[in-house]
Amino acid sequence: MAEWDYELFWNKTMDHIRGELGEQEFSLGFNMKYIRATEHEIVISIPTSLQRDMIKKRYLNNMENTLKSLSNKNISIVFEINSDYKDKEAPNPQAVPENKAVSRESPRSEKKKESNFQLREDYTFDKYVIGENNTFAANAAMAVSRNPGNAYNPLLIYGGVGLGKTHLMQAIGNYLFNNSENKIIYITAESFTNEFIQSVQENRMPSFKNKYRYTDVLLIDDIHFLQNKAGTQEELFYTFDALYNAKKQIVFTCDRPVSELKNLTDRLKSRFEMGLNVDLQPPNYETRCAILKKKIEIKNIAIPDEVIALVSKNVSSNIRDLEAALIKLIAYSELVGKSITLETARQQLKDVFASPRQSNMSIETIVRVIAENYSLTINDLKGRKKTQNIVFPRQLSMYIARQITEYSTTEIGQAIGGRDHTTVMHSCNIIEERIRSDPKMESIIQNIIRTIKEYSAKS
Ligand code: ADP
Ligand code: MG
User: Fold this and answer.
1) Is the CB of 166 under 6 A from ligand 1?
2) How far is the CA of 451 from the centre of ligand 1 (A)?
């Protein structure tokens, strides 16, 4: 496998941790050495398995996240126990020779640990708040965890950005990691693609196939990334069939319903749709409050209920934004040494609340721009008249709202004349059909979207 040089990133990661822990604590636990790396893996030597386990448990996420933000790549850290190094750096004649400790572990359990490097420890079911927006998906995920390969296979979780797909998928992985002997692989579709391409280039396809076709649980995140990647699609198709026929559990996530994916072979689409497809919707106000309360409880800090209400009311796009607002408040209070009050929250989150993504204006803006563009009134678009000159722009506004906002089909239907979500879905299908049959349609729509964005940036 090609060697990569990540030593600089590694050193910076250590600097980062040293900064967080302070010199003294750092020097107690962190006598590790960079040895070598491949594109997605850094090998680090560490004196004892005890230290390795402590680091894995408490700092691995932090280290891997830091590496990721420095390198823009998913890099996992693999530890090698090196007793020579221990003798030199930290002599301890009483210590049990480490090679013994390693050989006690069966090769299978070693393997299992390696694959778990990809899972975030905090993405578990007990930290996942179940609300009206995700009950079905969460129940399906728990059923799969209890009965992998049998309950629902494959399980596909879809929904917009920041709605909890990755968390739910990794909760399955974490549950099975802790409660079974299953070998688990979690990977994003993007990393899967990169690994596949590299394996082809370096003539390592047999080991690639071995890895993915002989796992017990395969979790592939963000499969929309596979659009246009014909080679990877083909490989995944064969991987899928091998695992499926062996009754191994497969879970996918996707940012939209499979039927809306473009440039994906029909046979792969049909595989994705074979088991159970469940969607995640944006959480309502009560669920947003419950999620914030849970996060606060985990972080063990005090935030008044009125602040939780304020944030939940104003940040409705998705859970990632909700969490980001909370983190901003906590950082402010820690850095300035003040407790979080309604006043400071209002002050600190003013920009967040005003961003176009959070503003209820966006569907209104879409409707207004489209009405102007087609010389209609807003009431025409929201109304019930069914003449062709009105129906098409009306459908277009629903389609564009779906494309450029985070609103659910229910919310869009509501905002555009109190319509049902199935009407919105139907409208989107019709516009997509028009785009397919009329080559000019795509650019007409892109122009309108540009105008809407300019308009909303100004207002
Ligand atoms: P996605 O993969 O859909 O973009 P993530 O799974 O990354 O979204 O979720 C974004 C953030 O929101 C994560 O920090 C996750 O822990 C949190 N989150 C999402 N849904 C929930 C939930 N139901 N309860 C608690 N936290 C959640
Ligand atoms: Mg995700």
Assistant:
1) yes
2) 32
Q: Which atom of ligand 1 is nearest to the CA of 280?
A: 3
Does the beta carbon of 322 lie inside 6 Å of ligand 1? no
Which of the residue ranges 195-204, 350-359, 399-408 would you say has the lowest mean pLDDT? 350-359
**Structure tokens that stand for 216 in this block:** 């017990």
Q: Tally the C-alpha atoms within 13 A of residue 423's C-alpha that lie toward its C-beta.
A: 20
For residue 223, give the DSSP letter: G
* Residue 129 Cβ contacting ligand 1 at under 6 Å: yes
Q: Which two tokens stand for residue 424?
A: 């919105």
- The answer to whether the CB of 323 is under 6 A from ligand 1 is yes
With bands split at pLDDT 50, 70 and 90, how would you rate the model's confidence at 328?
A: very high
> Alpha-carbon distance 236 to 454, whole Å?
40
Strands 217-221 and 184-188: parallel
Residue 275 CB less than 6 A away from ligand 1: no
b/e sequence 239-258, b meaning 16+ C-beta within 10 Å? bbeebbeeebbbbbbbbeeb
Atom of ligand 1 nearest to the CA of 133: 23
- Rounded to 10 degrees, the C-alpha dihedral 311/317/323/325 comes to -50
Q: Which helix (H) or strand (E) holds 58?
A: helix 49-71
Torsional sign, CA 423, 225, 275, 137? negative
C-alpha span between 394 and 415 (Å, rounded): 12
- Cβ neighbours of residue 181 closer than 8 Å, sequence gap 6 or more: 108, 112
- Which amino acid residue places its CA nearest to atom 16 of ligand 1? 167
Determine if ligand 1 sits within 6 Å of the CB of residue 162.
yes
pTM confidence score: 0.62
Q: Which two tokens stand for residue 365?
A: 């803006």
